C-alpha cells in the first residue's frame, strides 16, 4: 500500500478502529459508528491502490463488486454514475447485499487522485456500509467524509 498524506473529516460519533481487527486488513482507514450489541456496526473504509500512470475507474468499481460477490449471498448494483471532474474524477455506486442473512447497503466512491509532480494517479476507494434502517444516519456522514476527502499539500 502506498503512503500518501490523505486528509478527511471523521464525523462526530464515528471512531477509528484497527483495519486488520475490523476485517479490512488492506484498508488505509476504518471508522465505525458504535451501536448496541447485536446490531450491525456501520463502517466507512478508505482503501488506496498502487500508483499507476492512469486509473480505470470503471474497472475499479467492477473489481469492488467482484470482491463483494465472493462474500455475499445476494448482490445487486442498485446504481452507478460518474462523479467529479478532472483532475480527480470518480465513479459512485450503491450495492445492495445479503450477507449471512443480513441485508446491507454499501455506498462506494472510486476516485483517481493525481500524485504530486505528475507521477501518475492512485485509485482510492471510499465505502460506507450499513443496514437499510441505519442509512438515514450513516449515509449523510459518509457523504461528508467523501466531500472532505483530499490529498494534503503539507503534513497537516
Description:
This protein is an alpha+beta fold. It is built from 2 helices and 9 strands; from the N terminus they run ββββαββββαβ. The strands form 2 sheets. It has a 7-stranded antiparallel β-sheet, sandwiched between helices. A two-stranded antiparallel sheet has the order 1-9. Strand 5 and strand 6 (90-99) form a beta hairpin. The relative contact order is 0.22. The mean pLDDT is 89.
Question: Short summary of the structure?
Answer:
This protein has 156 residues and is of the alpha+beta class. It has helices at residues 57-69, 135-148; strands at residues 6-7, 15-17, 29-32, 43-48, 74-83, 90-99, 102-114, 121-130, 150-151. The relative contact order is 0.22.
Strand and helix layout:
Blueprint lengths: L5 E2 L7 E3 L11 E4 L10 E6 L8 H13 L4 E10 L6 E10 L2 E13 L6 E10 L4 H14 L1 E2 L5
Antiparallel strand pairs: 1-9, 2-3, 3-4, 4-8, 5-6, 6-7, 7-8
Features:
156 residues, 7-stranded antiparallel sheet, alpha+beta, two-stranded antiparallel ribbon, globular
From the N-terminal CA to the C-terminal CA, the straight-line distance is: 21 Å
State the low-pLDDT regions, or none: none
Strand content is: 35-45%
Overall, the morphology is globular
> What is the averaged pLDDT score?
89
Number of helices: 2
The main pleated sheet reads as:
7 strands, antiparallel
Assign a percent range to the helix content: 10-25%
Supply the helix-strand structural class.
alpha+beta
| C-alpha-based Rg, rounded | 15 Å
Q: Got a strand count?
A: 9
Output the helix-strand order. EEEEHEEEEHE
Side-by-side strand order of the widest sheet: 2-3-4-8-7-6-5
